[in-house]
Amino acid sequence: MVLLPIGSVEDHGLHLPLDVDNFLIWEICEAAARKAQDDILLLPIIPYGFEEHHMDFPGTINVGMEHLLHFVVDITRSVAHHGFQHILIADGHGSNMPILELAARRTILETKASCGAFIWPALAADVITSLRQSEKPGGMSHACELETSVYLHLDPERVQMEKAQREVGLPSSRFIWLDLMQASPVRHMEYWSSFSQTGVNGDPTLATSEKGEKIFNAVVDRLVALVREFRSRSRGQRIDHHQH
Ligand SMILES: [Zn+2]
Fold first, then answer.
1. What pLDDT is stored for residue 184 in this prediction?
2. Distance separating alpha carbons of residues 213 and 129, to the nearest angstrom
3. How far is ligand 1, taken at its centre, from the CA of residue 32, in Å?
4. pLDDT one-digit tens code per residue, 69-98
5. Ligand 1 mean position to 230 CA, how many Å?
6. String of b and e for 195-222 (b: at least 16 CB within 10 Å)?
7. Buried/exposed 41-69: b ≥16 CB within 10 Å, e otherwise
8. How many whole angstroms separate alpha carbon 178 and alpha carbon 197?
9. Can you tell me the distance from the alpha carbon of 221 to that of 239, in angstroms, rounded to the nearest whole number?
10. pLDDT at 131
11. Who's near 181: CB < 8 A, 6+ residues apart?
12. pLDDT of residue 244
């Protein structure tokens, strides 16, 4: 089972460093790999992601969507070429997800490997929802209650909580919102600076390291469970139903 982490270098408000998405997904994957050493081969992280909509904020580094798709598939194809049959792409940055879903699908269509992609909060949505205090939707989106809590748990000295500000800037809507825990029916992304002053979308003022610890441990446990299930998952045979 090969685990491929990917994050981003991206602004995360005034209170968090640029490395949030890389740091969190790497710590999650490394902790899971330590717990399940015989089950996980952990690849180096891809440290950059798709960020065009965040480029108004200093420090952000963007990889174009087509480049990223090709780059990720080049890696999964290499892994499959060496004989590995199970690949999971572990994402730390929301805007990578549509591209990673395509990369996983292309890997299945173009190699003998099975490949899936996930973003880490989705693995423990029930635990996160039970701890959540911020408004729904909108309170957990970016540099928010969720990301800030987990960062506070892992390295509190790099979080400047006195600079944390709540921002939920999108107009309220029945159909369009941004929330890591629940995607809106309509996918829609404006330039981030058009609705956020500091880069935050969500409520980091509600973050605590206690929440972060519970969430981190739950995500790591679920990742180990996912890996073990995915590794032993049976695959049906493809059958061509054309008449010859
Ligand atoms: Zn982030």
1. 96
2. 14
3. 20
4. 999 999 999 999 999 999 999 999 999 999
5. 26
6. ebebbbbbbbbbbbbebbebbbebbbbb
7. ebbebbbbbbbeebeebeebebbebeebb
8. 16
9. 36
10. 98
11. 121, 125, 128, 129, 132, 136, 137, 140, 146
12. 73
**What's the 235 CA to ligand 1 centre distance in angstroms?**
34
What is the helix (H) or strand (E) element at residue 114, kind and residue range?
strand 114-119
Intervals of the chain under pLDDT 50:
none
C-alpha–C-alpha distance, residues 141 and 149, integer Å: 13
Tokens read off for 156: 């509190």
Copy the structure tokens of residue 60: 């952000």
**Distance from residue 17's CA to the centre of ligand 1 (Å):** 10
User: Nearest 10 degrees: CA dihedral of 161, 15, 169, 54?
Assistant: -160
Instruction: Print the SS3 string covering 96-111.
Output: HHHHHHHHHHHHHHHC
Rounded Cα distance, 91 and 244, in Å: 43
